[in-house]
Amino acid sequence: MRDIASFIEHTLLRPDATARDIETLCAEARQHRFRAVCVNGCWVPWARHHLDDTDIKVVSTVGFPLGAMDADAKRFEAEAAIDAGAQEIDMVLNIGRLKDGDTQYVLRELRDVVEAADERPVKVILEACLLTREEKLRACGWILDSGAKFVKTSTGFSRAGATVEDVQLLRGAVGDKFGVKASGGIRDTPTALAMIEAGANRIGTSHGVAIADGVLLARADSY
Question: Which pick of 148, 171, 176, 185 has the fewest CB atoms within 10 Å?
């Protein structure tokens, strides 16, 4: 299996995060060679400044964490993030409209954000803990139709995060070639590895250093 660091999007989305905190996040991403950092929109330029000479991606949230704002606001937020230097977008789906079965609204919102991302990958956050199995599967169908590149389990700000069962369900729904990002409550190496085994090809976590160090310790113990 590839180095676990290549799966990790090192994440800092706390409302009290400061410029120094983002700088530390980026330094840790450099040290451990994480796939990406994930930050709120206002920190995209600062993260790019600290990572511009690397291949570490800067991911910006859109519609975070509730997903309930007007669809045009999400489109504008995505455009602003791309203009600021974001290389990927993590967008929260409108959960209420999904539960209403409002195909037209949700697909329009998804396609607008995908268009605003201008060919950068869009990951669509479901907040799986709030959805039934049928709603998760319905959402996956819409996401596949929208031009997005990933489905993501959770924001980490609701009542529960990623589960192995949800990752398996989403992987089965979207197929082998689509992206699945597990996020929310992934705090240690065994949990991260279980998510990867279940089908995740990205791990969103604020505990990336501990997870990566756990793998290093395990390797050291094996000699």
Answer: 176
Q: Which of 90, 136, 149, 166 is catalytic?
A: 90
The yes-or-no answer on residue 181 being catalytic is yes
Domain of residue 101, CATH code: 3.20.20.70
In the set 57, 136, 152, 166, the catalytic residue is: 152
Residue 18 clears pLDDT 50, i.e. is over it:
yes
The number of distinct structural domains making up the chain is: 1
| 221 carries an active-site annotation | no
pLDDT band at 223; cut points 50, 70, 90: very low
Q: What is the DSSP string of 44-72?
A: HHHHHHHHTTSS-EEEEEESTTT--S-HH
How far apart (Å, rounded) are the C-alpha atoms in residues 4 and 203? Answer: 9
pLDDT of 218 over the 80 cut: no
Does the annotation count 136 as an active-site position? no
pLDDT of 215: 78
The verdict on whether omega for the bond into residue 15 sits within 30 degrees of 0, i.e. cis, is no
Domain region containing 217:
4-221
